[in-house]
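Lab meeting tomorrow. Please check the following:
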Amino acid sequence: MYVYIYDNFLRQKKYLSVIKAIEVNLTDFGIAGKVVRLSNYNDAKAMIDEEIHRGAKTVVMVGNDETFGQILSRAAGCECTFGFLPVGPDNSIADVLGIPLGAEGTTVLSRRRKQLLDVGWVNSRYFVGQLHVLPSHIEVIYDDRFRVTASDLMEVVVCNLQPFYWKRFQKDGAQQVVHPQAGKLEAFLRPLTKKGWLRYT
């Protein structure tokens, strides 16, 4: 049984035709299911646990990067298979996963191909995109094998599904590549050097 979780922004009129096309395709592929809508007042994990209790085997997130992160940050440990149908702007995760936007994404879903993806864990929550630690006095320990420290501030980005730019180098187009099925998260560290009383570089 499939359950589709629609993000709240999909209620907007401009998405009605895309949602209609998605639902027609899902029916044609024989994978239509129950639709549940996210709101500011419901807990994704509790909602998914309830649907699993009712027999759901696959939970499909419909929305954008924020939808994906909001649901999986709470519910990545649930005993089900997750799918994703990207709709609207801000869908960099869909690019990494190779899922086309809108109704075309249903073709990928219909193949029912399962892949394991890495997730991170911090402060009692999962993260699936990236974790950005602003410049701080940080010590990074890798698999209890070695440590990385800096004498001053250090900025850290831990990536899983989303590539990133160091803000200073964005003009160079030096996007960092990430591998969401490598079995390890990828960390990028940048020590900062103090240039003056209040400025770091």
Observations:
- The helical segments are 16-29, 44-53, 65-75, 92-97, 105-110.
- The two ends are 53 Å apart (CA to CA).
- The chain has five helices and eleven strands.
- The first strand starts at residue 2 and ends at 6.
